[in-house]
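Sample entry (182 residues):
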Amino acid sequence: MEKTPSGTSVGVDDPYAFVDRCDHLTDDGRCRFAVERGEEDPAFADARSAEAFRCPVAGDPDTDTADGPWNWTDCPHFRCRNRDRECTRCGLTERRMAHSDERPLLEEHHLSYSDDSRAGEGDPSHEITVYLCRWCHSKVHDSWARIDDDATPDPDAIAEQEGRRAREQDELGFESAAERFE
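Predicted structure, serialized as tokens:
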């Protein structure tokens, strides 16, 4: 199983199994990194420019499969950050309270860590992140729990989520002036 630099588990054998698409990939199959940030890697940007900025992994934009000549592991600028606001392991959804400093229910969890041959020390070679609730996050790092386990939300997580939901409902409730000031 993949490990963090400190030696704890990240909960997966293959981080790329959780990749849907690269964050730099546009809907029409082009590489946004090469277009917008080409000065950071001119050789890469020139190669993409020669192919009309086509992503070498995505291949044909009319299909939903990555059928290009490269794999996600081959791209030096690959990044995949999950945007779904629910725990990848147990399905708990986020409930953020506006104007509150409460700790979020969900935390970003890195599946990929530095490969010294590709990146600087401590920098992910390919940033691959998912969201895990605080409870699943600790289970993955502190034990042999895996992200793809069939898990249900922890009772404490559900209680915290429902407490936030109840406060949210109270804020949305209507109380007339006659009721407030009797």
